[in-house]
Write a structure and sequence with these properties.
By secondary structure, the protein is an all-alpha fold. Helices cover about 90% and strands about 0% of the residues. The chain has one domain (about 10-170). The chain has four helices and no strands.
Length: about 170
Amino acid sequence: MLAKYELADRLWPMLALVGGLEIIVGTILTTIMVLYGNDYDELYGTEESRGISQACLSGSMILWITACMLLISIHWKIRRLMLVYVFISTILGVYIFILSVIKMQYGLSLIEKDSSVSGCGGNQNFLSSAPCLLGLLTLLGSAIHFIGNIIVFTYYNLKFIQPCMIKCNDTI
């Protein structure tokens, strides 16, 4: 049977993988939003689409920053920084989920508005359904982020909280 500290040490490479992938995804999403965000806003031309673009950009930047926090905390074993990461990452996961729901609602409202117009071409239907598809992909990203957050919290629990509880029980 594995001791709890051995299990925590076995989770360390997975934490490095989560942090590295979050940096890669955050960098790619930020680059895409910077390069193509204006085109997306001009295509739909509404205040809602501009707000969604700005929310996506800020979310991807926060994802990158929290991933850097995770990698720094596991490299130098800074407990407080990892705890801050867990809190901010949980809030970010909820933020990504809410953003995905807003994107899907915006996409569905575009589809509803365009369906009332007769004679829509196939290209117009694709443009109307693109925000809905992006919302579904964002929802998938939220679920994956949640799984990564569970891995980090499990590591934090096994590495820092459980040993404190065992030491406290030994002194009683």
